[in-house]
Amino acid sequence: MQLDNNVVIAGAGQAAATAAAELRRAGHAGAIVIVGDEAHAPYERPQLSKAMLKPGAAPARHIRDVAAFAADGIELRLGRRVQAVDAAARHVELDDGSTLPWSRLLIATGVRPRRLPGAMDVPGRVRYLRSLEDAAHLARDFDEGHALAIVGGGVIGLEVAAAAAARGIAVTLVEAADRLMPRSIDAPVSAALARIHAARGVDIRLGCQAVALHDDGSVELSDGSRVPGARVLVGIGVEPNIEAFAGLGISDALGIRVDACGRTAIEGIYAAGDVASQPLAAGHGRIETWANAQDHAVAVARNLIGEPVAYTAPTWFWSDQGGTNLQVLGDATQGTRVVRGDEGSDRFSVFRLDDAGRISGCTTLNNPKDMAMARRWMRQATRLEPSKLADPATNLSDCQS
């Protein structure tokens, strides 16, 4: 491999596959090598908590066919891990002892689930959800009818709760905070989600933690109660996969620190997707969404080939929880709150406006058209009239001030 124009991508997830394809689309003619520690070609992770937990063996949905990577001249080194980087010599060392030279290195190693402490992390009983194998284990648990305790009331916990309840599994969801998804949505929307899931049979326990797993298949909570939990799914956050890059001085407490163009402090080294600590509001933050992994990777790929493109897209994600579609844009917890629809129903929208009447955030339940308009308004910095926005009889297109 020639050193003058080749790109090595550490990681083989959404960001890695997207960046590699974008490099080719943008005209990069040098070698591209993707190094991934899983044996599988890059695949879509959202399916793990939804389609792959339904009855029957749902086939894995890959981002691209292996043949498409080959046709683009993109080499896949699967089942291998980057374990060290020599920034001076410009090569990476893999876990089999081999090395790969690079002229530019893209770190897209993603994140991994945070684990339960010590004795509670019981193999075979405690599950995490990050890989195809993880989803297969959980689906088998469903097939066998094991009662499920879910630790963590975030997106993963709620999506799995919906999938399990739909299959008749006894589900208890335990959240340490006093409401669901407290970092992403406001309290009334949290309450609506709790109501929806409870109506499906999910036992929701807020303001407590799992403190012990007992041999009788129960899980002891911090309030002294016990809940059924022959299997336990843990969704208490994630940690960035940055160990291989620790000696480079390019990481912070959140991940690989980058500027708006995806550049680290070392020339020629970039980061994209979940592992990147990106400029966010007044500081930096990880944006753990499918949309960010996709769109950030496209922008960073352009920077790799010398086209300076600042990534400024607002945070946006969706979550399909059974028959409920939740979408969140921007900061959905701050600003003037304008509700469109009935918050006591399963379909409504909450818009957040700044002091100038522009969209700063939005949450929708089963209202994708409202979200599509909110995203357009945010891009266009449209000023809105709150009274019109709150009136479902007024067309969204007529809500401008």
Roughly what percent helix? 10-25%
Cα radius of gyration in angstroms? 22 Å
Structural class: alpha/beta
For the record, what CATH class of the largest domain applies?
Alpha Beta
SSE layout and pairings?
Blueprint: E1 7-10, H1 14-25, E2 32-36, H2 66-71, E3 74-78, E4 82-86, E5 91-94, E6 99-101, E7 104-107, E8 111-113, E9 126-127, H3 132-144, E10 148-151, H4 155-166, E11 171-175, H5 187-199, E12 203-206, E13 210-213, E14 218-221, E15 226-228, E16 231-234, E17 238-240, E18 256-257, E19 269-271, E20 276-280, E21 283-285, H6 290-304, E22 316-321, E23 324-330, E24 336-341, E25 348-353, E26 359-365, H7 368-380, H8 386-389
Parallel strand pairs: 1-2, 1-7, 2-3, 7-19, 9-16, 10-11, 10-16, 11-12, 18-20
Antiparallel strand pairs: 4-5, 5-6, 8-17, 13-14, 14-15, 20-21, 22-23, 23-26, 24-25, 25-26
Helix pairs in contact: 1-6
